[in-house]
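Need residues for this backbone.
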């Protein structure tokens, strides 16, 4: 099938490449002309493992093309909307971009066309889309709109598309069930568990999934602080807890907090939804606050370990992306820590192997170094905030010579503590016996 995909961001590009590798012909459209030119030249505007090679391979095979034209090409049977739903004036998960894209496709696509919304929607999002469909139907038959949220992780997006945990599609009206099933069938070669349901339930599946994952992370982070206080090891504690298959080990890992474009935003969106519905949800309400308090606690712990006021100190922040394997800094806990440190009077210099430029655009006040040693020059402490494998092999002797102090505080359990100690550094780890 010829698929038309709107939005060349992380979700859109992974989806486009994934369907192209399944044998579909995919045309990707975006209003960002420089981004489209970059893609047409075979380069990826985002860092995602395997992405650039896949773009080149599928483009060379004639299965992947790029355009700024918002109108589906002749012969395209399906359009997939992958535009953002950022926080807007009304709060998280603004559907303004989605509605604009869907309205345009309703006008330009033929009646037998199917519009698939892969963007994350608030629970009321399907109703907004249905109103667009109803308005268009007053002028005659129009395309069907189906929802199909993604459950992919940045840094593992292509792997997750190829081996999805589930495929979920939603219909706006019961009469659209067959269309929703047809969209689910596009993924049939992947042999994933599939669920077809009403679009409101599907929207809540997406939100609830991410907020549950955020809750597991927040729980692990609070356990880590308890471990610091009582002398236990959070890795051993979570390993033991995760042995219960009712709980599981996935996402039960301590670190500097939740980040990215999904979990933090949706940890705010779901409580707002419940409040508007008049439903008390104290557990769900607490997740976002737990994350913020944890990041403040990490900074306070660094100050305590430093043994001197943070005001006037210099901190090297290793890792700026919200997680390893991406250059995405949206809601990055590392940048949140940088803001907390600066608010406490510390000077911060960051380093990241992929996200240095995106971090500087997101936080113009942030100083950055071109490598870990440069970032650590004159630093009283090093704070490790992202779990890049590169940080396992840092030249700690060179770091020690560059630093003014001797403290390394690792929130990701990635530092080779023996090598760092052998270089004369003092290593502390979040919730762990270093």
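Answer:
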């Amino acid at each position: 099938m010829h698929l038309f995909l709107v939005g060349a961001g992380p979700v859109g590009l992974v989806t486009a490449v994934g369907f192209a590798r399944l044998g579909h012909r995919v045309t990707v459209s975006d209003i960002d002309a420089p981004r489209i030119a970059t893609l047409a030249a075979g380069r990826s505007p985002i860092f995602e493992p395997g992405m650039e090679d896949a773009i080149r391979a599928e483009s060379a095979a004639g299965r992947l093309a790029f355009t700024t034209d918002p109108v589906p090409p002749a012969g395209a049977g399906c359009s997939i909307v992958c535009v953002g739903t950022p926080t807007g004036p009304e709060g998280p998960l603004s559907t303004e971009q989605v509605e604009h894209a869907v309205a345009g496709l309703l006008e330009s696509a033929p009646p037998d066309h199917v519009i698939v919304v892969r963007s994350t929607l608030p629970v009321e999002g399907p109703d907004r889309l249905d109103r667009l469909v109803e308005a268009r139907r007053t002028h005659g038959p129009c395309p069907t709109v189906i929802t199909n949220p993604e459950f992919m992780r940045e840094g593992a997006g292509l792997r997750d598309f190829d081996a999805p945990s589930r495929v979920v599609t939603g219909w706006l009206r019961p009469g659209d069930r067959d269309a929703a099933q047809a969209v689910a069938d596009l993924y049939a070669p992947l042999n994933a568990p599939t669920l077809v349901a009403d679009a409101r339930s599907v929207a809540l599946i997406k939100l609830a999934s991410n907020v549950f994952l955020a809750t597991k992370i927040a729980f692990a982070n609070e356990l880590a602080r308890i471990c610091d206080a009582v002398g236990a090891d959070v890795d051993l504690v979570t390993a033991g807890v995760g042995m219960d298959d009712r709980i599981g080990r996935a996402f039960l890992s301590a670190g500097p907090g939740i980040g990215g474009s999904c979990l933090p935003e949706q940890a705010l969106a779901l409580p707002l939804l419940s409040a508007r519905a008049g439903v008390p949800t104290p557990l769900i309400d607490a997740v976002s606050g737990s994350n913020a308090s944890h990041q403040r606690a990490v900074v306070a712990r660094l100050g305590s370990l430093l043994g001197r006021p943070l005001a006037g100190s210099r901190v090297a922040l290793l890792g700026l992306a919200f997680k390893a394997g991406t250059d995405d800094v949206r809601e990055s806990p590392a940048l949140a820590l940088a803001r907390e440190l600066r608010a406490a009077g510390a000077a911060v210099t960051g380093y990241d192997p992929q996200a240095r430029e995106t971090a500087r655009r997101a936080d113009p006040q942030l100083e950055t170094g071109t490598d870990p040693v440069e970032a650590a020059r004159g630093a009283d402490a090093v704070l490790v905030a992202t779990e890049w494998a590169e940080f396992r092999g840092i030249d700690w002797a060179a770091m020690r010579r560059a630093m003014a102090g001797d403290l390394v505080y690792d929130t990701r359990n990635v530092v080779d503590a023996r090598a760092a100690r052998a270089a004369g550094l003092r290593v502390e780890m979040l919730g762990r016996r270093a």
